Amino acid sequence: MSHPKPTVIGKISYTNSWPVFHNFHPSRLSFPAEMVSEVPAILNQGMASGNIQVGALSSFAYAAASERLLLLPDLSVSSDGPVKSILLFSRVPIAQIASGTIAVTNTSATSVNLLKILLQKAMGGKPEYISAVPDLDKMMAQADASLLIGDNAIRASWQDQGYIVTDLGELWKEWTGLGMTFAVWAVNREAAETRPKAIAEIAEAFVESKTLGQRNLAPIIREACTAIGGTAAFWDGYFRNLSYDFGERQQEGLSLYFRYAYELGLLPREVKMEIWSHNLLTRVKE
After folding, report:
1. Whole-prediction pTM value?
2. In percent, how much of the chain has pLDDT > 90?
3. HEC string of 88-152?
4. How far apart are alpha carbons 206 and 203 in whole angstroms?
């Protein structure tokens, strides 16, 4: 099947998605495809507009553009408890800063909105949020607590600076009893309609890459040690702790997150998650 333009696939650059991407090679697909690795904001924009037809994006970005997107099955970045890379650093316990000033990283709406849900709904707080570049020292100079995500959070967690460190994945699990999904794989609805065979092949290739990546983490761990630092033992534990599936349990946790985000006015409309499946739509059970 020939397409005039290559299919563009979006790749999140954060380490937490590496096990899914490591063994995924666009050149091995049976049609022209290219992969773009970008910061979430650019990927989110591209997926919503259709310039990027398929790929990974943050959960909140999917929600904001859900009317134009379908979720791919069996793929996510989720945790069922601690996530180890979405961390709130504070001088006092979190309950005492629920109405203080919190510096938040300007790189992830999913994590920032998870923090807002936890502080407002679980603790009845209404803090002031200030957006900041992810530099812990500078953030703590102007706030009572600071939220870091991804590789910045991981690096900061290795340094004992005397702060109380709260893992938002763990807090969410304690409060709701459910896991939290931070990233999903999705396809633009138009691409799903016009390139069904291509999307099916990409979806299968991602699931295969995920299986291979989880079966052999060694090269991914080596890459993380080189790129970010830390020990092989840390990265082995980090990757094994995450879930890359998107079954009923992950869907239930994400559905609740979207409901709370809507109730707090963080999302303009309720999100109805629809899962792509070889020309069939599967609506996630409420």
Report:
1. 0.93
2. 83
3. EEECCCHHHHCCCEEEEECCCHHHHHHHHHHHHHHCCCCCEEEEECCCHHHHHCCCCEEEEEHHH
4. 5
